[in-house]
Write a structure and sequence with these properties.
This protein is mainly α and 148 residues long. It has one domain. The protein contains five helices and no strands. Helix 1 runs antiparallel to helix 5 (111-142), helix 2 packs antiparallel against helix 4 and helix 4 (81-104) packs antiparallel against helix 5 (111-142). It starts with a helix and ends in a 6-residue tail after the last helix.
């Protein structure tokens, strides 16, 4: 009788330990998802901030560009290559916008200034059009319910 009692006790302890291990495994997976989400969201927020600066000011400063580069620095580890390339494309357009603004200031009125002004307008338009596009591009990486 004592032997049966110890067998049952041992089985119950083993079952409880297995249950605790399973719950810790599930908790670890959920923590990983949350940590990944937070890192991905920082990249999203840095991109949104840069695009918001362009929308508000029609230009972007070098410190804002540096802040953006720092904000997307881990993107290649967190996203697929298509999104990383999209983030680089945003950077190239923002850098060109900044360069065009710097180049147009000292120019006298004329064809070259008009051409640069048109490029500034086009670049600003493209960048501001990316604000609604941003959520579409990031959505597959940010939805918890699709993660396994």
């Amino acid at each position: 009788m004592w032997l049966d009692y110890w067998k049952l006790t041992t089985f119950l302890i083993a079952a409880f330990a297995a249950y605790v291990a399973y719950r810790q495994h599930r908790l670890g997976k959920e923590k990983f998802k949350l940590d990944l989400f937070e890192k991905r969201y920082r990249v999203f927020a840095a991109t949104r901030l840069l695009l918001t600066h362009v929308l508000q000011n029609g230009n972007v400063t070098l410190p804002e560009l540096f802040e953006y580069r720092a904000g997307i620095g881990e993107a290649s580890f967190l996203f697929s290559s298509d999104l990383v390339e999209y983030l680089e494309e945003i950077y190239r357009h923002a850098l060109k916008l900044h360069t065009d603004h710097e180049s147009v200031a000292p120019l006298p009125r004329g064809d070259e200034r008009s051409r640069l002004a048109e490029e500034i307008c086009t670049g600003t338009g493209w960048l501001t059009d990316q604000l609604p596009e941003l959520k579409k591009r990031f959505a597959p990486y940010m939805a918890f319910n699709k993660w396994h």
